[in-house]
């Protein structure tokens, strides 16, 4: 877990997501239905860590940015990336469920990923030949 306070984590993710969407603070506030002036002030206060966010507002911000609320609370870049990847891919989310339920399969997948390319290609070809 991060040593950063929760407000700092949220502020960093909020700025990152807003900038990736090409939105100003004012535009994000407007998308949230707060009006341009009120919205701009509120987003600025979140980003400057001057105000805490409520759960309802967290959901509204996430919806306006088209990201899962968990993304805005992720305490590391790796976790934030994983949350976005899982939210955008039902197949990947299912794979994670299967790997968590079957540790031996997760270990085998890691070993497979670490093989040199030629050996990995052979192993993948053998797996593809298995009946479904």
UniProtKB/TrEMBL annotation:
It comes from the Bacteria. PROSITE patterns: HTH_CROC1. It holds the Pfam family HTH_3. InterPro entries: Cro/C1-type_HTH, Lambda_DNA-bd_dom_sf. Residues 14-72 form the HTH cro/C1-type domain. SUPFAM superfamilies: lambda repressor-like DNA-binding domains (SSF47413). One of its GO terms (molecular function) is DNA binding. This is Helix-turn-helix transcriptional regulator. It comes from Thermomonas brevis.
